[in-house]
Amino acid sequence: MAGGDDVALSIHAAVPVPKRLIQVLAPLAAAARDLAPVVVVILVFQLLILRQPIPDLGGMALGLLSVLLGLALFVRGLELALFPVGEALAFSFAERGNLALLLIFSFLLGFGTTVAEPALTAIAAKAAAVAASGHFIAHTDAAIHAYAKGLRLTVAVAVGLAVVLGVMRIILGWPLHWCMVAGYTSVVVMTWFAPPAIIGIAYDSGGVTTSTVTVPLLASLGVGLAMAIRERNPLLDGFGLIAFASLLPIPFVMLYGMLVG
Question: pLDDT by residue (tens digit) across 33-50?
Fold first, then answer.
């Protein structure tokens, strides 16, 4: 009997192994599914349209594998860490009932995530180099560094204020579409007065802020806050912070261009 119990226990202990294996492989499968259309398009155009061999096939395969693994780990990390943290923080601040503290936290969250955004760092450095080559600013390392830093800080401040406005919209129940109409109307008006050299950078800066670091935390903050406040629907009211974060940097960067120019 004892031997039979040992066998049963060993079989029972072995059962969860496939489930754990599936949990590990599921993010990889999802990442592969998401990357498949991009890979197919590249292969079709490279081999059938352009009729050229793939350069450095081994290196590209290794890079694709790295992207696959990184994307799977990143998405899994969002599910395990950033989304729960954002929602938990929103619940905590809503329970405390301190509006000033919530707004300060919202600004610092938007500012901090944007400063740490890799896409913004890259676009700011590129914009500074192009501005120097176009004689928009002095062609010195100090001027290029100062321009890039000023651009990053301007966008970060804009996103911080955007998160504050988004939180106020959730608390007060402002209609999102009217906020967007007013915001983009101001963007159109400022486009007529901003220096032409800054307009393209301004419009692009609204897109680069909504990337890998900023989006998960802002989305989870909005949903968690809408869930914590009575008479707020998480689906209708919880989303929209990212829209503010992609809108407000545009007029702020235009204003930055007017002041620097």
Answer: 888 888 888 888 888 887
Angstrom distance (rounded) from CA 27 to CA 30: 5
Q: Are 245 and 162 in contact (CB under 8 A)?
A: yes
- Compute how many other C-beta atoms are within 10 angstroms of the C-beta atom of residue 137: 18
Query: What are φ and ψ of residue 240, in 5° steps?
Result: 130, -20
Cβ(65)–Cβ(39) below 8 Å: no
The 10s digit of each residue's pLDDT in 194-204 is 888 889 889 98
**Secondary structure of 131-162 in HEC code, one letter for each residue:** HHHCCCCCCCHHHHHHHHHHHHHHHHHHHHHH
Question: Any idea which residue has 């000033």 for tokens?
Answer: 100
Cβ(253)–Cβ(154) below 8 Å:
yes
**Dist. CA 6–CA 17, nearest whole Å:** 18
What pLDDT, in 10s, does the model give residues 67-121? 888 888 877 777 777 677 777 777 777 777 778 888 888 899 889 888 888 888 8
Nearest to 91 by CA among 217, 226, 202: 226
Domain residue extents for the chain: 83-260
φ, ψ at 94 (rounded to 5°):
-65, -40
Single pTM value for the model: 0.74
